Amino acid sequence: MGRFDGWPEQAFDVLLRLDGEPTMEERRRLRDDRERLVRQPMVALLQDIADMDPAYEDFFVWGFDKMIWPWQRQRALFLMGDGNQCIVTFDLDGLVVQGHRWNRRLGGYRTAVAGPAGEQLVDILATLQGKGYELSGDVMERTPHGFPPGHDRAHLLRHRTLTATKYLGCEDWLHTPTARAHVFDALEELRPFMRWLADHVHSDR
Fold first, then answer.
1. Cβ of 119: how many Cβ atoms within 10 Å?
2. Residue 61 confidence (pLDDT)
3. Mean pLDDT of the residues in the chain
4. CA distance 143 to 120
5. Which pLDDT score is estimated for 104?
6. pLDDT per residue over 58-73, tens digit each?
7. Phi, psi for 175 (deg, rounded to 5)
8. C-alpha dihedral, 190 to 126 to 182 to 84, nearest 10°
9. CA distances from residue 124 to 131, 144, 203 in whole angstroms, order as listed
10. Are the C-beta atoms of 46 and 5 separated by less than 8 Å?
11. Are 88 and 97 in contact (CB under 8 A)?
12. Along the chain (205 residues), what's the average pLDDT of each consecutive run of 10 residues?
């Protein structure tokens, strides 16, 4: 192990030059520097984490796009199976790690949340919040049809998607291999959430 050495300080210079509304010509001029200083460190980071634990072997690192958004932040994800993803983002604000559920079909998620397993999810999410995670997602205004509005877990039943986000910040360790440990630790904190989703929610239900 040891591909990842951190993001060089010049990575922030590149992202700063991409801030706002740079022209396509400006993006092309910065493309090689962005690949070398921003994207390749992310690739190395995910390769190292995959070496640390085979659960993270299936990953994807975004490339470039016609839209400006992907140029201004480097996003990558670990595919955890059945619509579940762990997402790592690097931008001018530093590093962010997320656990995310993409609900193609909501039946399985709602059944699990409403049943006995939902109590375990509440505990898992409370633990994550205690560790600095924020919960968000695409949320319906009302409790879905078939569930009483006064259900103990109505707030979770209203989620079409569910995301737990931790902002790791923009500290000096970003420029060192130590960043790898910070990301790995956050992924491990998310693991009970990812495991609950894998055990109780299936995309075909």
1. 12
2. 96
3. 92
4. 20
5. 64
6. 999 998 878 899 999 9
7. -90, 10
8. 20
9. 11, 23, 21
10. no
11. yes
12. 88 96 93 97 97 94 88 94 88 96 77 92 97 94 87 90 94 96 98 92 62
